[in-house]
Amino acid sequence: MRLAELSKRSGVSTATIKYYLREGLLRPGRQVNATTAEYDEEHLRRLRLVRAMIQVGRVPVATVREVLGHVDDDSLGRTVRLGAALWALPHVPEPDTDDEHLQAAQHEASELLRALGWRNAELLTSISPAFRSLVVAVAAMRRLDFDWDAELLMSYARLMHRAAVLDLDFVETRETEAERVETAVLGTILVEPMLQALHRLAQEEESARRYGFE
Amino acid sequence: MRLAELSKRSGVSTATIKYYLREGLLRPGRQVNATTAEYDEEHLRRLRLVRAMIQVGRVPVATVREVLGHVDDDSLGRTVRLGAALWALPHVPEPDTDDEHLQAAQHEASELLRALGWRNAELLTSISPAFRSLVVAVAAMRRLDFDWDAELLMSYARLMHRAAVLDLDFVETRETEAERVETAVLGTILVEPMLQALHRLAQEEESARRYGFE
């Protein structure tokens, strides 16, 4: 297809597509003559992914380039390739202070993964940026004397593990490996705000059920 | 207690406490003489809440003032008071365009709440900001041709309802009504980043279980 059709089918303006091409976020089309290039379904799919990261996920262009580098690196195994792409996405900012709460939270979060029986706990605690985000979140709770017990944290973790199973089951319905990695990245960007909205709605529903509306 | 002790026990600097007092985010202490005021446990609790909103939730000061207005308004019933406080917290920004995807998503999200059998679906779809966030999230999926079915969306919603039950069970362990409302606001600010971190960790664990680390 030509640029105009790619724009129409993707809903992305030709000016924006040209910008993505210049920034190297989209592979050049196949040049058919000096002024015309031909694009295919793979361009369309990639455009969808880039647009989701930039417009929905508000991911900076340099980060998009980094994520795509991992998505395209088929020398990596699937877990590492998925992980590398997701890890490049923005995470919770690090706190300013490295206080005793952060140390205690580090210990508490490690214990949680072990208590859950997660087989890759050792690895996750040593290299995952999501583990670091969890530590930051637990430290914030402790700094505010929010006296949650380990059992409650485990219940939340089990629910989120069930969400992750749904995520990966959906990813596995995709046909090619490239599509699966792209879907995983898209999923993270699209599913997280949806879960947050569902969570708040569920709180309102449950609150109205318990306390009514007087 | 004096200002110095309030600062020590809360971990908030005296300069910041004075700023919160000037901005009306914290009630004045009981003046014991011209230069000294006395603070109590209620000040300490309120300081914790203000700090969580500003430092952890990055909520703007004007919004904090609005949320506190609802937290303190005991003329309201519990559901409305909780709702008003939580609704004042920042939500997903509205999309620039009101296209056909947004209309379809509005319909799809309403159907979801009805299919779930949520008793307050009618009310939530008409007034809740979280419902609007859900519509925006679903529209983003549709705009990208992300072909999720309604069944999958329902499974995610059921998981988040279970999370909401855990949230409210914890809120109910607090003794006074003021503490319960404060805990609900604190919970929203602290639990959401924690759930996101747990979700990503669970994806990594599940991915490693399924695909190993080649």
From TrEMBL, chains A, B:
Name of the featured protein: MerR family transcriptional regulator
UniProt source species: Streptomyces galilaeus
UniProt KW keywords: DNA-binding
UniProt cross-references to Pfam families, sorted A to Z: MerR_1
Record-annotated HTH merR-type domain positions: 1-70
InterPro entries reported in the protein's UniProt record: DNA-bd_dom_put_sf (IPR009061), MerR-type_HTH_dom (IPR000551), MerR_fam (IPR047057)
